[in-house]
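Quiz preparation item.
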């Protein structure tokens, strides 16, 4: 079960922005990089900035998520894809609870493949990381 297209982080520019400016939260299997919505980062000072921010906040209305899994996790694509599917399924369950506008990147650590981690463990760890980063609805 894939994430809806509106909730996918796809462009290289978006990934770079999250890595450059986002906050980090670490777990035993995953690392979460989260970038707050643009409209909560800086207040508008003039009208030109306000119109730009209005279009940007409309563009980032839904939370967008990307998953990064390196060949360091496993050389076998079958293993990497299985882990990616499990994380996607866990994120799909958490999607309704997330605040709108966030850009998230979930980075998989090599311990996830070594320990034969399963979906409930990914779900539990993702919930903890998202709560630490205050991404859940009502926290930001």
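Solution:
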């Amino acid at each position: 079960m894939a994430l809806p297209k509106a909730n996918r982080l796809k462009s290289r520019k978006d990934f770079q922005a999250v890595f450059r400016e986002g906050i980090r939260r670490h777990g035993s299997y995953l690392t979460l990089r989260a970038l707050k919505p643009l409209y909560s980062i800086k207040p508008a000072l003039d009208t030109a900035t306000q119109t730009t921010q209005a279009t940007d906040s409309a563009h980032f209305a839904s939370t967008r998520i990307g998953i990064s899994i390196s060949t360091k996790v496993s050389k076998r694509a079958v293993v990497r894809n299985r882990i990616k599917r499990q994380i996607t399924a866990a994120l799909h369950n958490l999607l309704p609870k997330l605040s709108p506008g966030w850009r998230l990147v979930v980075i998989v650590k090599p311990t996830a493949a070594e320990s034969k981690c399963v979906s409930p463990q990914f779900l539990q760890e993702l919930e903890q990381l998202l709560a630490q980063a205050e991404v859940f609805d009502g926290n930001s």
